[in-house]
Amino acid sequence: xxxxxASIRKELAGIYAKGEIExxxxxxxxxxxxxxxxxxxxxxxxxxxxxxxxxxxxxxxRLKNREPIQYILGMTEFYGLPFHSxxxxxxxxxxxxxxxxxxxxxxxSSEPFILDIGTGSGCIAVSLQKNIPQSTVLxxxxxxxxxxxARRNSELNSVDVSVFQYxxxxxxxxxSFQKLDIIVxxxxxxxxxxxxxxxxxxxxHEPELALFVPDExxxxxxERIADFSRIHLKNKGRLYFEINEAFGTExxxxxxxxxxxxxxLKKDIHGKDRMIGCxxxx
Length: 282
Fold this sequence. Notes:
The protein is of the alpha/beta class. The protein is built from eleven helices and eleven strands. The strands form three sheets. Strands 5-4-3-6-9-11-10 form a seven-stranded mixed β-sheet, with helices on both faces. Strand 4, helix 8 (144-156) and strand 5 form a beta-alpha-beta unit.
C-alpha cells in the first residue's frame, strides 16, 4: 500500500496542499477498503492488487481535474451521518453543521413540526429528524435531482423526512401546510461578483442554482422565506437561516422590518456572521 500512497502524493503534489492530500488518501482507502483510521495506519504493508491500483488511478485522474472527492466517491459525511453525494447537488459544508447544532440545542426537548426550504442533499432535514426524534420534518427543493437525493439520504439514515417539490420564489405549486414550529433554510447567497474569490473545484463542479444570487438582489431568498414564514409559522415559531457573512446586518434589519422578534446573529467557528435565528410572535 505504501507504493500506492506514494503515487497519489506524487500525482497530486502542487494541485492540493499537503494536508489536503493526506485527507484525500485516507478517504480513498476508507471507500475502497472500508478502513477506519486505525486500520488504515496498520495496513500500510498490505499489497494492493491490480484492480485496486486501477481504481486509484481513476480517482486520482478525476482529482487532478479538481473534481470534488465527495462526487468521485459518491458519499460524504455530515453531522456524523452518511450522505449520498452526486453532481447537481450541493456538497454539505461544516458551517451548516453549526446551524444544525444550534437548532437541536434549542429544540431537542420539543416535538416540532419542521420545514427545510431548499433542502439539497437533505443534510439539514435528515440530521434534525435523526437528532430530534419526536420531530416531524418536511423538506422541499426546486431541483428534481436534489429531491431524489434527499429521499435516498432519508432512507439511508432510516428517518422519515417528507420530501416534495416547491419553488419558494414563486410559491408554486400551491401547497397546503400545517402550521410550522420551525422553518430553516440554507438558500443560495453568494453574489455573482464573488465568483472570482471561489475555488475552481466549486465553480466547475457544484450547481450554480444552489450557490448564486444576483448582485442587485442578494437577499431575494431570505425575503421570500421570511414572507412565507409570516404565514406558515405558529405563534412563537422559529426561523433559522445560514447567511452570507457580508449581509448579517442587512438580514437582521429585514427580519425586524417584517415583524420578527428575538433576532440573533450568530458567528461560526471562524468568527464569521453565518447564522440567524428569530421568532414569529403574533
